[in-house]
Each structure stands twice: as structure tokens, then as C-alpha cells.
Amino acid sequence: MKAKHALLCALVLNSTHSMADSLKVMAYNIMQLNVQDWDQENRAERLPSVLASMSDSPDVILISEAFNSDAEQALAELSALYPYQTPNVGLDCSGSGWDGLTGNCSNSPFVIRGGVVILSKYPIVTQKAHVFENSLNGSWDYLSNKGFAYVEIEKDSQRYHLIGTHLQATHDGDTAQEHRVRMGQLSEIQSFISAENIPASEPVIIGGDMNVEWSKQDEVADMLATSRAELNFETPEVGSFPAKYNWFTKANAYYFDYSLDYNDTLDYVFWHRDHKQPTNAPSMAVRYPKAEQNWYWSYLRGN
């Protein structure tokens, strides 16, 4: 496996610190694309065993970029550990499998699924999906039913509300326009939360591939303000999207002519400030699943 997009955030959300009162949430971009060769099949085959072997196994996983049949098979193999799984956002615009589907879901044969799925060890009481109205025309994302999945789960008589998402990506190296779209998408999430009338006594957790670079603290501030969210994250030695350890990031560095020392984080798990707050200071940390073998790609040598 590669280091890209594997983040774990443990949130203790009750007034005590027992395991019954905590929830561990991981946002994971598994990069199972329908196009190009990024070793999708081999990585998908390893995914179930890697997640099952984690010593701090998360209670809930917010999956993004589950675009292909290899991803479907991998998630199905995780059903023993994560028996409660949502459908894939935007795969079916009829709303089948959801308690509600809103937004701009397209049935066009040229538009692919959104790729977001939520896995849970605990019963999902409610599951809803939304496909974003905000999307950048002319970008690859415009041809995807990107959006978010919402679940209400119950663990030991405590209700938790979680949203997993994947925001607009930056494709041309200029983030200004894409950043505005991302903030529009986060506003859609905020509007959804408000409309759900979630009790203030219950926690709301939001996570996923936000495509907001941690190094751009002004954009991070916008993200948190728009989401009405709190985040506790210290800059790691290696981020979730480092060129040194991720061949996809390295390929981008060559293509867009930026530094091979690029090392940033694009993925987050945070909690909503208008709902139940954690009693401790939960922090987000990056996890680095790796394959046992080293893979070398001649087309990334930069020659």
C-alpha cells in the first residue's frame, strides 16, 4: 500500500474516557481509479488485510475514490470487520439503498460514481447521500457524482453523526478557483447538517479528502470556518500526500514542475463546533500503510 490519504483521528466524545465512550474515525482515499495504471488491482487486494491488521483499528472508515470493481471487492471482503456499509455515493441516482438522496446526481453515461463509502463496526441507524451542486465545469471532477455520505450510528447507546466526503480537486496547479468551489461544497454540507436538526447533545464528525493543503493555512482557516469545525493537528514529518513516498504525488511533481520535496496533507477528520464536544483534546494523525515489496516505476525517474 502507499502512504497517500490514510489518516486516523481518535475522538473521545463523552464525559468519561472509557472505550465505550470513544469513537475512532479514519478518512482513507484508496485511489481506486477507473483510468491509468496506478497498481490499482494489487493495492485493492492488499487493502482488506492491511485494514484488518491495524493495531488501532478504527470504528468507522470514511472511504473516498472507490471508483472501480476492485474497490467493490475489497470493501466486500471487509464486511466481517465492518458489517455496516453504505452504498457508493452517486452510483445510483434512484436513491436505492439510501434513506435520502439530494443534490445534482447525474445519470449520464459519461458521469461516474462519487466514490465515497462509509464503513462502520456499529449499526447504521440512518444513511443519506448528497451529490454536490458546486462543481468546476471543465474539470475531471465535473464528470463525477462527487458529494458526501451521512450516517447516524449507535455505539453503546450513544448516537454519532458522521459525514464522509471528497471535495473538488485542483487539476492545473492554480487553486483559487477550485478553492471557491470547495468552500461552496462545504457550505452544502453545513446546510445539510442544519436541515437534519441533529440534537446539540450528539457529536457530528466530518472527514475525507478535502483537497485543502495544510501548508496553506489561510485555506485551512476557510475550511474550518465554513464547516463550523474544530481540528487538532500538528504538522507531521510526512504528510498524507508526500512526493518522496507516493509515486502519484511524484508524477504530479514532474508533470506540474513543482518540487520533489513536496510534502503536504490534504485529508482531515474534524468535529462540528455546534454539537457535542469531546472531553479531551482529540488529535488527528497520519498513518502509513505500506506494501511488503518495493515497487519501482521507470516512468517516474524524471529522465
Task: Describe how the helices and strands are arranged.
Layout lengths: L5 E7 L9 E11 L7 H13 L7 E7 L2 H9 L6 E2 L14 E4 L13 E4 L3 E8 L15 E9 L2 E9 L9 H21 L7 E6 L7 H11 L1 E2 L10 E2 L4 H10 L6 E2 L2 E6 L11 E3 L17
Parallel strand pairs: 2-3, 5-7, 9-10
Antiparallel strand pairs: 1-2, 1-15, 3-6, 4-6, 7-8, 8-9, 10-14, 11-14, 12-13
Helix pairs in contact: 1-2, 3-4
Walk me through what this model shows.
Helix 1 (40-52) packs parallel to helix 2 and helix 3 (176-196) runs parallel beside helix 4 (217-227). The chain has a single domain, classed as Endonuclease/exonuclease/phosphatase (Deoxyribonuclease I, Chain A, 4-Layer Sandwich). It contains five helices and 15 strands. It has helices at 40-52, 69-77, 176-196, 217-227, 247-256, and strands at 6-12, 22-32, 60-66, 84-85, 100-103, 117-120, 124-131, 147-155, 158-166, 204-209, 229-230, 241-242, 263-264, 267-272, 284-286. It has 303 residues and is α+β, with helices and mostly antiparallel strands. The longest helix is centred in the middle third of the chain and has 21 residues, at 176-196. InterPro entries: Endo/exonu/phosph_ase_sf, Endo/exonuclease/phosphatase, Sph/SMPD2-like, Sphingomyelinase/PLipase_C. One of its GO terms (molecular function) is sphingomyelin phosphodiesterase activity. Keywords: Hydrolase, Signal.
